[in-house]
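Retry 2 of 3 after timeout on previous attempt. Resubmitting structure tokens to design endpoint.
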């Protein structure tokens, strides 16, 4: 099985052992020995799992004055750092896997990019509104930059790298900006009216690197096949690729961030894999270099099919290696169905653990958990994502596990994923969880509401409570009328929803439900007290805005304070003149802070992890024993947000308010969720050890469910 995935391919005398490559993500180092050890475990695991090529984030990114950026907190001038990379590359080479270094060019010191969303570089000086008066880069500085690129590549080759990956996506480098008909308005040797003229800079860099390092020094470029810029389309990009014949060995093909939405629950425009259409166009041009589309690859059967049909040469992945650290091993054993699907949740990959794979943290922290001491009889009460993860981990450690689920199927809140079309990745994860439970040896008791008396009578050594959460209503007159539905009731009986629907509540669940119902043909009105998209706390907020503004059956009423709810109407006071925050591609990143409350304490209960597991906090101290830890993820933090200077302030007395009545067939309220604390408290004393996990502690993400469930099982 998967013979095409593991078949070798040769380009310009360079042989890759398989069709799997690793795009730049993860394995960052800060120069310390500990971080090198962690990164070595990360990359060698990928190599062992069949990857032919891994891309390492080096951080040796020259700017236009030949200076070394401190991005990634790595100093390539340090001999100890160089030696660390040499050792790491040597370990990866043992598995026949090649290594490239990610290299890009920006102007960090001059542009102060630490506060920018996308590292926008103003080629001419008048494109980025934040730097309107910046002078044009001189030809002499560009000459110096070229020499610095060559010097850096020679150094990388000396250290042991097999090649270099030039980052040319999302206007993030001078090499990418130079070919843009919008950004490059120069009239000297580095500009011109044609693509051939504008491409002179990157082609010069590639040619000089090949001359300095030899033909067998691999050059890979990561490019955007489409951009938001006028004059830059797929055909334009393909023309550039043809100009690179003989100089570039591999094209990593990606799309623009705003061309698809894949986080925050809005997988709405494309199912995985993304960007394959660009690879097909690339192949149709007859370009000799290898193409490697990036984005959404994870299903091995799909990979094998595309490779067999010649739709692509390589598969570039990063997050799938987080989602399943045994990815390649499972494929070689013919167990493609057992591969853990990646949720494409973004932004969680460098946090304590992958949202769906808690074992990823063990690559960074071997020996984190003690060995189990004997087999225990374990009851897991609740068959949602947290309970399933706890049950699977406990069973793997040799315990006798029984799952109690009050409904007729496992999945908890994840069962709602089968309804919205844009939640397809979570739906795949739900089916994967059920398959794993069926193979685990766990006993499953469906349609069984476990009671403390039952648990105590059956004599369990430990109980893991994954009772989940319940929908809250809102403090508005009429919200609890019999005909007013909660979010849970919508999914439990979607056929009962009318054609004209008003949904009150603009949180994540409310927006997802409104979008789902709108796509079923219903006329949806979403009432939110704030600006809708700014309730999102992820870096694709721009894409979320695009989804909401382009859905024809969805009307969003922002700054709406709901006053009264009836069975077939809603009355709200709407602030009609509130300034709407404009999302800009070049805007300053706004830190969208959320208040985190401590979970209610139940005497006698053991909380294995702190409930808030954000990437910025790092791993919870209870999880990281013996001084173990992971380096704080470097980087700028990507996001779309507004420029504060562009938001006018409005005095309270000047706000215009209008009372509006919205007629409808169905009213839905989305007031958030609350943990089932009282239900959990009833189990106190029914077993020697009791753990409360997942939404039963604090409603949160799949990642929090995964980590808390895993930690509870490992503590047994």
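Retry 2 succeeded. Sequence:
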């Amino acid at each position: 099985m998967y013979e095409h995935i593991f078949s070798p391919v040769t380009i310009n005398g360079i042989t890759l052992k398989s069709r799997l490559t690793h795009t730049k993500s993860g394995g960052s180092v800060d120069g310390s020995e500990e971080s090198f050890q962690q990164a070595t475990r990360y990359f060698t695991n990928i190599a062992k799992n069949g990857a032919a090529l891994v891309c390492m984030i080096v951080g040796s990114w020259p700017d236009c004055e030949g200076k070394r950026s401190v991005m990634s907190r790595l100093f390539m001038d340090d001999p100890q750092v160089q030696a660390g990379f040499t050792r790491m590359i040597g370990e990866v080479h043992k598995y026949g896997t090649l290594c490239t270094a990610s290299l890009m060019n920006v102007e960090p010191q001059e542009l102060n990019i630490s506060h920018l969303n996308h590292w926008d570089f103003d080629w001419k000086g008048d494109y980025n509104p934040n730097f309107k008066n910046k002078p044009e880069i001189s030809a002499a500085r560009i000459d110096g930059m070229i020499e610095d690129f060559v010097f850096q590549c020679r150094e990388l080759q000396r250290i042991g790298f097999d090649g270099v990956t030039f980052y040319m996506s999302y206007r993030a480098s001078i090499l990418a900006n130079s070919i843009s008909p919008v950004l490059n308005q120069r009239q000297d040797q580095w500009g011109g009216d044609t693509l051939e003229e504008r491409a002179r800079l990157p082609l010069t860099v590639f040619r000089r690197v090949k001359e300095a390092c030899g033909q067998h020094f691999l050059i890979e470029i990561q490019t955007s096949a489409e951009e938001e810029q006028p004059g830059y389309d797929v055909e334009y990009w393909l023309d550039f690729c043809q100009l690179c014949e003989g100089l570039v060995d591999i094209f990593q093909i990606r799309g623009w961030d705003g061309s698809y939405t894949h986080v925050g629950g809005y997988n709405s425009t494309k199912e995985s894999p993304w960007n394959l259409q660009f690879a097909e166009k690339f192949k149709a041009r007859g370009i000799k270099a290898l193409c490697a589309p990036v984005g959404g690859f994870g299903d091995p059967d799909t990979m094998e099919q595309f490779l067999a049909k010649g739709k692509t040469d390589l598969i570039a992945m990063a997050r799938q290696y987080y989602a399943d650290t045994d990815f390649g091993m499972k494929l070689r054993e013919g167990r493609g169905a057992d591969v853990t699907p990646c949720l494409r949740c973004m932004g969680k990959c460098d946090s304590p653990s992958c949202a769906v794979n808690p074992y990823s943290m063990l690559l960074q922290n071997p020996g984190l958990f003690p060995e189990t001491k004997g087999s225990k009889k374990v009851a897991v009460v609740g068959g949602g994502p947290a309970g399933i993860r706890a049950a699977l981990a406990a069973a793997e450690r040799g315990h006798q596990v029984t799952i109690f689920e009050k409904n007729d199927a496992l999945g908890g809140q994840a069962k709602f994923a089968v309804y919205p079309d844009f939640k397809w990745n979570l739906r795949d994860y739900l089916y994967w969880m059920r398959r794993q439970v069926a193979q685990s040896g766990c006993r499953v008791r469906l349609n069984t509401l476990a009671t403390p008396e039952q648990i105590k009578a059956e004599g369990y050594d430990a109980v893991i409570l994954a009772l989940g959460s319940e929908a809250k209503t809102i403090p508005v007159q009429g919200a609890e009328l019999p005909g007013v539905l909660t979010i849970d009731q919508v999914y439990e009986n979607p056929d009962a929803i009318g054609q004209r629907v008003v949904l009150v509540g603009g949180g994540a669940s409310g927006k997802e439900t409104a979008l789902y119902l709108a796509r079923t043909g219903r006329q949806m009105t979403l009432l939110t007290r704030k600006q809708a998209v700014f309730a999102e706390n992820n870096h694709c907020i721009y894409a979320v805005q695009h989804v909401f503004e382009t859905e024809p059956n969805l009307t969003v009423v922002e700054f709406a304070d709901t006053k009264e709810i009836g069975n077939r109407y809603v009355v709200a006071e709407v602030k009609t003149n509130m300034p709407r925050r404009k999302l800009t591609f070049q805007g300053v990143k706004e830190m969208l802070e959320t208040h985190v409350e401590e979970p209610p304490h139940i005497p006698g209960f053991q909380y294995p992890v702190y409930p808030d597991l954000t990437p910025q906090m790092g791993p919870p101290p209870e999880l990281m024993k013996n001084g173990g830890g992971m380096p704080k993820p470097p980087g700028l933090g990507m996001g779309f947000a507004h420029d504060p200077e562009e938001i006018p302030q409005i005095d309270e007395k000047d706000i215009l308010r209008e009372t509006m009545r919205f007629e409808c067939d169905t009213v839905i309220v989305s007031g958030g969720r609350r943990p089932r604390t009282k239900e959990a408290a009833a189990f106190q004393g029914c077993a020697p050890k009791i753990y409360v996990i997942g939404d039963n502690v604090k409603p949160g993400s799949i990642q929090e469910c995964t980590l808390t469930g895993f930690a509870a099982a490992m503590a047994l």
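Attempt log closed. The chain has a mean pLDDT of 79.
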